């Protein structure tokens, strides 16, 4: 039986995710009376399962290796691009400026807020502060910046952890906070994607809130990591160097 | 045929990733800048153009819609392969910074959403 699953891991992943979805929607309807959407429950179960493994979540356990392919960045991006079918070009055009402002503000605020908290926690070195601030953007910007500046591996590891915390918190908190921050239309979803920037967190959080918003958030979030990799090791580092 | 829709999606995906990589190397960073965004925009534009020309048959569209509906299951699978343990093991500093930054960004959503709307009215 285990050998059979080992050989057909990808297909087994379909079965597993189907089961998770089924259980989640039943729990959402019968136990939670729709107060937490089924998708949110499913994502929470996914995150809980991830703690059973290590770096690659549950796929570290050979039996569940297929989940790494189904949940990998190739299929994630492929399916996210497909959601563009439901996006309205005129809405994107009218919110375009807000999206661009959100992107720049998002990278800027995440970086300097991260630096500020790190400073309060006792970090004083410009390279370390920059790497931590970059990690506060996304878990890709952190190591890219840290490597470029020659930061030590433990600081790079912290920057990756910060980015991962951001992804996980965005995934869990978005549906809970959506109403408070007015996240309910294409315009605010474009802004949201630009501000948060973590593709995984934004897409998962919006899916749990309202799947119709996903394409708009994904559209802006996709530029965030690149912008962060551009600004953090250059302009932002020079700014911090002037202070430390 | 449904495969036409899937192939169209694949074309847009690859085109977007190519443009994202190109922009990344132009900016001098070894990363994909906006690949998914370019792919989505090309799909939206191609889709509109094909519809206008009458080339987009219902079966073709179904091939696309299948993959767009697979998006949530893929995200659930993605959640299960995230490094959640790593996020927690980065120590308190990582958790504190991560949480503060995320909520700081949340707080800006209504502010910048308004900016966008004001500009639309002007």
TrEMBL record, chain A:
Database matches in InterPro entries: Mal/Na_symporter_MadM (IPR004691), Mal/Na_symporter_MadM_N (IPR018402)
Domain Malonate/sodium symporter MadM subunit N-terminal: 2-243
Keywords: Membrane, Transmembrane, Transmembrane helix
KW Plastid (keyword) present: no
Any Pfam family matching the protein: MadM
Gene Ontology MF terms in the entry: sodium:malonate symporter activity
Keyword Transmembrane: yes
Domain of life: Bacteria
Chain segments annotated as transmembrane: 9-27, 33-52, 64-85, 97-122, 129-149, 155-177, 189-209, 221-240
Protein name: Malonate transporter
Species, as recorded: Jiulongibacter sediminis
From TrEMBL, chain B:
Residue intervals passing through the bilayer: 7-27, 33-51, 63-84, 90-112
UniProt entry keywords in alphabetical sequence: Membrane, Transmembrane, Transmembrane helix
Record-linked InterPro entries: Maln_transptMadL (IPR004690)
Pfam families: MadL
Keyword flag Transmembrane helix: yes
GO CC terms of this entry: membrane
Protein name, per record: Malonate transporter
Organism, scientific name: Jiulongibacter sediminis
